[in-house]
Amino acid sequence: MRSLLFVPADSPRKFEKALTSGADAVILDLEDSVAPTAKANARAMIAEYAGRLRAIEHAPHLIIRINALDSAECDADIDAVCVHAPFAIMLPKAAGGADVQHLGAKLAVREAETGISDGSISIVPIATEHAQGVLNLASYRGASRRLFALTWGAEDLSADLGAAANRDGSGAFTPPFALARNLMLFAAASAGVQAIDTVFTNFRDPAGLAEECDCARRDGFTGKMAIHPDQVAIINSAFTPTRTEIARAQAIVAAFADNPGGGVMSIDGRMIDRPHLIWAQRLLARAEGN
Questions:
Q1: How many Cβ atoms sit within 10 Å of the Cβ of residue 289?
Q2: For 71-122, what is each residue's pLDDT tens digit?
Q3: Kind of pairing, strands 265-267 and 270-272?
Q4: In the chain, what are the domains?
Q5: What does the longest C-alpha to C-alpha distance in the chain come to?
Q6: Whole-angstrom Cα distance, residue 197 to residue 220?
Q7: Strands (E), 163-222
């Protein structure tokens, strides 16, 4: 999953734009982008959105960001959205694997009540929105079979830390936030799930977004969240394997298939071994899924 586009759940106009953006997933947001007085109306609109998506061939995945587990809105969110069997629930303010298990138990009850297959709704935690979440990142490993991906956030973490800014003058993340990003990447790899990079908030800076996407892909992220439809094409381009990469990955897989007992071999004068095979298999899986 390369691009995940946030859409306020109380904005039909923005949802319409999201449908033509080319995003791999649409994140209907019931949390930060919806005012407290508008949350009930936003929940009611989920049915219309879900129906629109079901009617579209090759529609983007539906992900719904609910309110935090410890909020007064969480259970009402879950009741309203589970009946529509979204691809995943995005969990904000996640504090670790225990929160995924807690949410998973709630989803299991709703799935049983609505006749949805057990475990069909995945979970994508935003894992670094407070200091406790950063310190508990290792706990996602083995937490739940519902865990589809991990992502991270810098804005709420800024507030929790009391930081004056999360980026320096060049636009790069300052050390505390770069640390949170990197630890989340390790946590996703440890848990065996996709690592999704956080949003790039300056949607009027396509060059800055492209550079940040390239760095994220280089480091191992498989996709990035977006806050504006204009960001989607840039993200998709950055996280789509190139023909050259696909050809190289296919050659590596073929070489090991032809030599199942081989440990180290050479392709075009370059040594390859098992880590290269793992890289190739993952790249081809991403290419097939795009």
A1: 10
A2: 999 999 999 999 999 999 999 999 999 999 999 999 999 999 999 999 999 9
A3: antiparallel
A4: 3-239 (3.20.20.60), 243-289 (no CATH)
A5: 64
A6: 10
A7: 194-197
